[in-house]
Design a protein that fits this description.
This protein is 40% helix and 22% strand. By secondary structure, it is an alpha/beta fold. It has 2 domains: 136 residues, Response regulator (Rossmann fold, 3-Layer(aba) Sandwich), CATH 3.40.50.2300; 192 residues, Rossmann fold (3-Layer(aba) Sandwich). The protein has a 7-stranded parallel β-sheet, with helices on both faces. α3 packs parallel to α4, α10 packs parallel to α11 and α11 runs parallel beside α12. The protein is elongated and about 60 Å long. Pfam families: CheB_methylest (PF01339), Response_reg (PF00072). It comes from Microbulbifer celer. Its EC number is 3.1.1.61, 3.5.1.44.
């Protein structure tokens, strides 16, 4: 079996050593070299042609963002960012995802050695996912269209629910940016650690015409708003009388994730039924596939991102294999399709 060849770039000798220890312990991957900064990494990339690069966000001589920007322009390759769990670190990491990084791992603030080793399985999975990203597909990743969708008249009963993992932050941005202020309410579960989801929501809020925020326990779910699941809690839909409400749950991880897409989708199936429209976007694994099937059986319209535009075609593939997705839709068309389904189902129910 040919191993995944990884180059680790970090100014910390401790982190470089830990990443080597974690990666070399996996049977299907190896560290071919480490580098203390991007200038050394540049030469090693030319010499060794690694499959995946792990890249620290903040380094001397040239920071990770500058290096990533040049790398993606001159020599695109799968990059996994290594970020600090700080507000500054989370904002820089989100910028890295915009520039083409596949995913990120967060350095623990305390107990770096024990913390990173605890996440060794997750780090290995993210490297495997990054290695599967074909460069041809990455180069075809569509940019969000500047065209904004027109306002629509949709019942306040209508609700959009979206789930994503690897590649999700950029996919979600491309779904939300075109939406008009009159869009149905949107609940979103994105696999992302605590400390990053608020920055993610704030960044989207600056870019979108709808309001985007991190979900809060008990708040009313309103049209024209998108609610991002906090990074350490499940997001569920609840109801009180005529109103939809946010319910947060710190229960056990589902499919090894909290928030879990399956948890959100299952709650939408139970509470909203045919008034919900579900969309499962790019991501590794199978989280969300069973939940999307539950939505379909409850009368919801369902779709999944297509293979060509998915950074990692894992979760959408699982949904398609179960027959849970009624449609497979390219990413640039998902926002328009969600609105069309919301308005069409609203007209059908009024007849």
């Amino acid at each position: 079996m040919e191993k995944i060849r990884v180059l680790c770039v970090d100014d910390s000798a401790l982190i470089r050593g830990l990443m080597r220890e974690i990666i070399d312990a996996q049977p299907d991957m190896e560290v071919v070299a480490v580098a203390p900064d991007p200038l050394v990494a540049r030469d090693l990339i030319k010499q060794l042609n690694p499959d995946v690069l792990t890249l620290d966000v903040e380094m001397p001589r040239m920071d990770g963002i500058d290096f990533l920007q040049r790398l993606m322009r001159l020599r695109p390759m799968p990059v996994l960012m290594v970020s600090s769990l700080t507000r500054s670190g989370s904002e820089i990491t989100l910028r890295a995802l915009e520039l083409g990084a596949v995913d990120f791992v967060a350095k623990p603030q305390l107990g770096i050695r024990s913390g990173l080793l605890e996440y060794s399985e997750q780090i290995a999975e993210k490297i495997r996912a990054a290695a599967r990203v074909r460069l041809s597909r990455r180069e075809q990743r569509p940019q969000a269209e500047s065209r904004k969708l027109d306002s629509v008249m949709v019942s306040s009963e209508k609700l959009l629910v979206v789930g994503a993992s690897t590649g999700g932050p950029e996919a979600i941005r491309q779904v939300l940016e075109p939406l008009p202020p009159s869009s149905p309410a949107i609940l979103i579960a994105q696999h992302m650690p605590s400390g990053f989801t608020r920055s993610f929501a704030n960044r989207l809020d600056r870019l979108c015409r709808i309001r985007v925020k991190e979900a809060e326990q008990g708040e009313r779910v309103l049209p024209g708003h998108a609610y991002i699941a906090p990074g350490d809690q499940h997001l569920k839909l609840a109801r009180s009388g005529a109103n939809y409400l946010v319910q947060l749950d710190s229960g056990p991880a589902v499919n090894r994730h909290r928030p879990s897409v399956d948890v959100l989708f299952q709650s939408a199936a139970e509470v909203a039924g045919r008034n919900a429209i579900g969309a499962l976007l790019t991501g590794m694994g199978r989280d969300g596939a069973l939940g999307l099937l539950a939505m379909l059986r409850a009368g919801s319209a369902t779709l999944a991102q297509d293979e060509m535009t998915s950074l990692v075609y894992g979760m959408p593939r699982e949904a398609a294999a179960l027959g849970a997705a009624q449609e497979r839709v390219p990413l640039p068309d998902i926002a328009e399709r969600l609105l069309a389904l919301a308005t069409a189902s609203g007209r059908a129910q009024r007849v």
